[in-house]
Design brief:
3-stranded mixed sheet; 14 helices; mainly alpha
């Protein structure tokens, strides 16, 4: 089937949808796109936008589904990048690496593809190649992809300990037998234990049975542990002040999950 390009007016609407996405207006972007897709069902360029919205909505499986047939879009590099990003969010790191490589073969100076390639390679244990792609992304777009904070393991552990000390006393007592562990990145097995998988960009995670549902006859290993993922936290923060705040927030929220609290209850316990 021959590719039929969108009209100039339709491209203007597509650009407005991209602007809405940039501004975080997901609902409005979805409504605008749905209106266009009713008039142009299955158009590959609209499938590209649909996939991007789905990823922002936390629906990588829908993104993969909608990308089928979008290979003929006007921007094949973006097609492969979005497919790589959806694969990455589903913890399919080999597939994400391969599609990011395809995107870069088409457009070598694509910072978001270099960044994604770096993150996929980190999970695959290719440290040197991951570092090289991260540096490429930073060189091409230092504002969007700054280098991760250079914080050593000891300094990071000190931040975590300080965050724990700032928790309310009635919360701290619940942590006496619950370890808070720092790992570089979440394991794939941990991510894929949930359906759908948890995002690999996770900052922290409580694993185990919360205290509201645990029982006296639970095995000694439960209720579990709180994990903090150092590389993701360092990548997410611009300076040490932001890192300290993010570590504190992450610890507090994972403690909330340990206690089985909802968002309103987090506030009442001083964990909001």
């Amino acid at each position: 089937m021959a590719y039929e390009t969108l009209t100039e007016t339709e491209w203007e609407r597509v650009n407005r949808i991209w602007d809405l996405l940039e501004d975080g207006e997901l609902e409005r972007a979805r409504l605008e796109l749905d209106d266009m897709m009713r008039k142009r069902p299955g158009h590959p360029d609209l499938k590209i936008v649909d996939a991007s919205i789905a990823i922002d909505e936390g629906e990588p499986e829908h993104a993969l589904d909608t990308l089928r047939g979008a290979e003929r879009s006007a921007d094949p590099a973006l097609f492969f990048h979005l497919r790589a990003l959806a694969q990455f969010q589903l913890a399919k790191f080999e597939e994400a690496r391969d599609d990011a490589e395809r995107a870069l073969a088409i457009r070598a100076e694509m910072p978001e593809a270099h960044d994604l390639m770096s993150r996929a390679l980190e999970h695959l244990g290719a440290e040197e190649d991951a570092r090289r792609h991260a540096e490429e992304a930073t060189g091409l777009d230092p504002e969007t992809f700054p280098p991760p904070l250079a914080v050593g393991d000891e300094e990071f552990d000190t931040l975590v300990e300080s965050s724990l000390e700032q928790l309310p006393p009635r919360v701290r007592k619940h942590l006496e037998e619950i370890p808070v562990l720092v790992q570089p990145l979440p394991d794939r097995a941990v991510l894929t234990a949930e359906t759908p998988p948890l995002t690999p960009d996770l900052l922290g995670l409580f694993v185990g049975r919360d205290l509201m549902t645990s029982r006296n006859d639970d095995p000694p290993s439960s209720p579990g542990a709180i994990f903090l993922f150092r590389r993701n936290l360092l990548r997410a923060c611009r300076d040490r002040e932001e890192l300290a705040r993010e570590v504190r927030i992450t610890v507090q929220h994972e403690v909330g999950h340990l206690l089985g609290l909802n968002e309103d209850e987090l506030e009442s316990w001083g964990l909001g």
